[in-house]
Amino acid sequence: MTLAQNDRHEVCGLLLGSREEVDEIVPASNVASDPARHFELDPIVLIAAHRAQRAGGPRIVGHYHSHPGGLAVPSATDRANAVPDGSFWLIVGSGDARLWIASPMHDGQVQFAEGTLEVA
Fold first, then answer.
1. What's the number of domains the chain is made of?
2. Could you tell me the pTM of the whole model?
């Protein structure tokens, strides 16, 4: 994964595969109104991936995004926008990448548990 031409903006995309491993990374444009601080996946890419999944294609298991100049940990904005559905959140920060899993807490709020990231 490369950080786009403007590495001050968050990059983002989808992770396809299974609960055990990510088989494919699909880049998407960041269409957020403030891409230096937030990310929003291009809906055209997201809808196409959902259509492909419904037709028997690869399963969407999560997404990735970057924190330019920041840490590879979920931000307050990430926590506010996350759905506690077990999806993968791969976050690329300054010098590292970490995998997080968005799970429900007892009150239904999201909690991020760090997953194992092995790059092959």
1. 1
2. 0.89
Per-residue pLDDT reduced to its tens digit, 26-84: 999 999 999 999 999 999 999 999 999 999 999 999 999 999 989 999 999 999 999 99
Q: Which two tokens stand for residue 89?
A: 């959140």
How far from the centroid of its chain's Cα atoms is residue 87's Cα?
9
- 78 occurs within a structural domain: yes
SS3 call for 66: strand
CATH number at 18 reads 3.40.140.10
The answer to the question of residue 54 being in a domain is yes
**Cα–Cα distance list, 68 to 23, 30, 59 (Å):** 25, 13, 28
Owning domain of residue 42: 12-114
By CB neighbour count within 10 A (0-12 exposed, 13-18 middle, 19+ buried), where does 87 fall?
A: middle
CB atoms within 10 A of CB 39: 24
In this structure, what token pair is assigned to residue 15? 């992770």
Spatial neighbors of 23 by CB under 8 A, at least 6 apart, are: 16, 17, 58
